[in-house]
Design goal:
The protein is an alpha/beta fold. The protein folds into two domains: 5-272, 2-Layer Sandwich (Aconitase, domain 3), CATH 3.30.499; 281-419, Aconitase, domain 3 (2-Layer Sandwich), CATH 3.30.499.10. Helix content is 32%, strand content 17%. It is built from 15 helices and 18 strands. It has helices spanning 5-13, 38-49, 77-93, 109-115, 147-156, 182-193, 208-212, 215-223, 239-248, 293-296, 308-311, 314-324, 342-350, 353-360, 410-419, and strands at residues 24-25, 31-34, 64-67, 97-99, 124-127, 141-144, 162-163, 166-173, 201-206, 232-234, 268-273, 280-282, 290-292, 303-307, 334-338, 363-364, 385-388, 404-407. It has a five-stranded parallel sheet, sandwiched between helices. The chain has a five-stranded parallel sheet with strand order 16-15-14-17-18. A four-stranded parallel sheet has the order 10-9-8-11. Helix 6 links the parallel strand 8 and strand 9 (201-206).
Amino acid sequence: MGMTMVERILARASGREMVRAGEVVEPRVDLAMSHENTALVINQFHEIYEGTGLAPKVWDPDKVAIIFDHRVPAESAKTATNQKRVRQFVAQQGIRKFHDIRGDEGGICHQILPENGYVRPGYVVAGADSHTTSHGALGAFAFGIGATEMASVWALGRVLNVEVPATIKVMVHGEFSANVLPKDLILYLIGQLTAEGANFRVIEFHGDAIQRMPTSGRLTICNMAVEAGATSGIVPPDAETQRYLRQVAGVKDELLVFSPDPGANYNRVLEVEAARLGPQVACPHAVDHVKPVEAVAGTAIHQVVIGSCTNGRLDDIEIAARIVAGKKVARGVRMLIFPASARIYREAMAAGYLDVLMEAGAVVANSGCGPCLGVHQGALGDGEVALSTTNRNFKGRMGNPNSEVYLCSPAVAAKSALIGVISDPREAV
């Protein structure tokens, strides 16, 4: 019997010929990522060395990446002080994969890693963020861990006591209709699986629709795999993976291209016909509360957000610009754009997309997480409704438990911003 993608990766990282779901391994980590929560990880890291007489030292500074993205620029003295402490730690440890608050290299961690070539097929990527699952788009086993676990990784270069997860195989066939996007696919799947349907599982994406999907779309679907409870999402590396890493990330090293073995054992197999899929919306206050856009069309909205680690890439911004070109955002609606990285911001500006969006009435903010977590820009007022391309809509997610958040694709978001109510992007304005 053959191995799934994650079994193959964990076997390599554990120095074994074969592993099976349910076995416990301690894989080597190829990349350890954290963001502003690095300040908490530093506390845990120093505790490991207490009483040893040894100076705290990360196992390999070149395999550690730290990105400021959740609160940029700092919104409070406390955040600024924590960021200062992280900068000092980075300098002491010689960590070079550090992305500060800068207009030339900053952005959201889950965009910075792929566009800089920090993630490669076959890697084990541990991140102190639940949406580390994003990086499975490049054929890596990428998963989130807590601050204490990350401190242990910094010290040892391994993740301790990892149970090899079983895998759900998703086959996506055919072609998507106009203005039906990867975000609609993953919202649909989360609705089918439910928020706990993939607990302790990996979702492995296959099919001709996935093979045609650009890396940006693959990042979207892997990013939100965790919303079905999955440990990770993963797409087998292929020609598109190589194109992205060569042409976008500038990687020149040899790349590992591999697939699951014939006869690999799957926990479950799901089949999706892309042509039958329409725009989807996740309704308050659960990501798996998913309905076709027709079922919620006409719902009044106050704020539209396009961005985040889920949908802040160049093609997301392009789609929004195309839909609003020559039109105006409805009065009473705030439309906020958060490019996922400084590089995407500059590319969108050079292409004219930001001019189009601003002329329509949108506000373009700096690259970062924005209101997604509810601790920085774009908080909601009491009774307000947001329509967002972000990844979570739990009560209070955008900073106010007395508000509501609906999740959707960039196409639904842009069209709805023009009308002032949730709208179907397949219909003419």
